[in-house]
Amino acid sequence: MAETSQGQEALSNLLHESRRFPPPADLAAAANVKAGAYETAAADRTAFWAEQAGRLRWEKPWDTVLDWQPPFAKWFTGGEINVAVNCLDRHVEAGLGDRVAYHWEGEPGDTRTITYAQLKDMVCQAANALLELGVAKGDRVAIYMPMIPETVVAMLACARIGAVHMVVFGGFSVDALGTRLDDSEAKVVVTADGGYRRGAPSSLKPAVDQAVAERPAVEHVLVVRRTGQEVDWTEGRDVWWHDIVDRQSTEHAAEGHDAEHPLYIMYTSGTTAKPKGILHTTGGYLTQVSYTHWAVFDIKPETDVFWTAADIGWVTGHSYIVYGPLSNAATSVMYEGTPDTPHKGRFWEIVEKYGVTIAYMAPTAIRTFMKWGSDVPAQFDLSSLRILGSVGEPINPEAYIWYRKHIGGDRTPVVDTWWQTETGAIMVSPLPGVTEGKPGAAMRPLPGLAVDVVDEKGEPVGNGEGGYIVVREPWPSMLRGIWGDPERYKDTYWSRFDGLYFPGDGAKKDEDGDLWLLGRVDDVMLVSGHNISTTEVESALVSHPSVAEAAVVGAKDPVSGQAIVSFVILRGEAGEGGEALLKELRDHVASSLGPIAKPRKIMVVPELPKTRSGKIMRRLLRDVAENRELGDVSTLTDAGSMKTIRDAFGSAG
Ligand code: 6R9
């Protein structure tokens, strides 16, 4: 398969980590999920998932739990369920209407508190408004929004009437929005005049105007007023949210939708090819998202305050800001802005203000906080926190330790959760009341899931060996395909290993059989006949006290095949970093991992190129290291960062 070509040899296993953190006794004693869950689930997986589906309200019970015609799965066939009813009506009817669903915090400091009863009313009004605009069951609705409550309302309104939402990151370009509108054939776009980022209003409506100008298939643009900035207006097409939604009835009788009715499309950008519209459906998705949110974060909805500090335009936001927390009647925090506006303690101020008990964020954010220094969080009361989560990239052991110590007060378990847009929900993660924490390891597949590591022939690797992560059995929240392209679905995920789902990541099993994720196999380096993962070299660099972040790539080399080139961001305390420090860093990697992993070249940079969800775009750094034109940068957060790096690289020795 073209998208994951490298990594023919077994991955070398270089990193050794011996620190261990057993679950706190009180958390273990009261945990939602106990150790026995693994065995019970393994004994009868479909019965296990049927039990989890039973946590939800079904309008019509299913006939069959799983209909598996590889590689196409249907879950809970014959069943009918409404996602919005499960997230809202059911809780209000159970007397929880006054519980806070969201403590919303705008970047400028404005706030909104929204209860379950209020959210239900808002969603019914928005559902009625979408119907008035001509949206019917099965139609696609694009959502291009800032992080405001109306974004959640729009998603749930779609789910309620059976329209399929397609959220596009508010930071994506006109082109990225346009290709997604084309591919999904969206009929309505929900947007806002703008949102607040980095202390100023940023605009959204002009990008929609441009994209929609060439796309007559879009019949209406529904616009939320957030910043009050001037917007161009197309009469007949554009509609203000407050004009149409506010006058609707708060009553909407929801019907059950087929368990396999499409819920949403979320595009993931492949490294080269056109973005893939990952399709998720209704019953199985909600089942696994709801279960994993409850199990991995040990949610106690009466007392917890849960915060996923991520954008809703990332699958993490869909599953763990919206559907997971709401299906469990939890109280969440939702934050509009950036972590350093107006000051670098913004996140910790929010934790203190709302008494956040569980926080979930990406390693990229954690490493940024490391760079800013531990004195920043030290100024806030973070004692409410009881569990911390990580998602999006492998968490370097040193970042894990920092997170646990400086944010978690050396008390909270850290759950490193591995999953993808395609998997819909968490697949591999510790359970905070059961699993011993190992810094850097995602540990075990969750109960009911069959995840393994195999060699290039598809045979399971032994303990202490590296290879490819695969999923052996269908799971409820698995993607149901790529929108409009079943062949590409088969090629991309099911052709590398016969009968196994291949997510494209490298992984290893340690001596205890626990799983460590080693990054995308596309990024694996081949140095003098050894496959070395970028993750392990990056983690070795980050374990040096002067380094906050590191990105490592293999650049073509006539002698060794590939040479290891590293880009590092130094911690605040470390100063500029001269030749002596660079030599020290190279020696530090060699002594942690062995001489084979010693970087040929290390460059100090102020920023690294990242996607909007914080993943390092190593292919762009490879372009720099091999002196090539830069490839596609349309999903990059900050295009300026690449120019700085390229200029610096050109002048470095
Ligand atoms: C949820 C999400 C998926 C890719 C995935 C992997 C990487 C995510 C990770 C992780 C190591 C973790 N990834 N979580 N790698 N440890 N805990 O990120 O979805 O944006 O589709 O990305 O992210 O490479 O294949 P998505």
Automatic annotation (TrEMBL):
Q: AMP-dependent synthetase/ligase domain: which residues? A: 95-483
GO molecular function annotations of the record? acetate-CoA ligase activity; AMP binding; ATP binding; metal ion binding
Q: Which Pfam families match?
A: ACAS_N, AMP-binding, AMP-binding_C
Quote a single Gene Ontology cellular component term. cytosol
Entry PTM? Acetylated. Deacetylation by the SIR2-homolog deacetylase activates the enzyme.
Residues recorded as binding CoA, renumbered to this chain, are R197, R198, G199, A200, T316, S528
User: Would you identify the family this protein belongs to, as annotated?
Assistant: Belongs to the ATP-dependent AMP-binding enzyme family.
Q: What is this protein called?
A: Acetyl-coenzyme A synthetase
What organism, scientifically named, is this protein from?
Nocardiopsis composta
Gene that specifies this protein: acsA
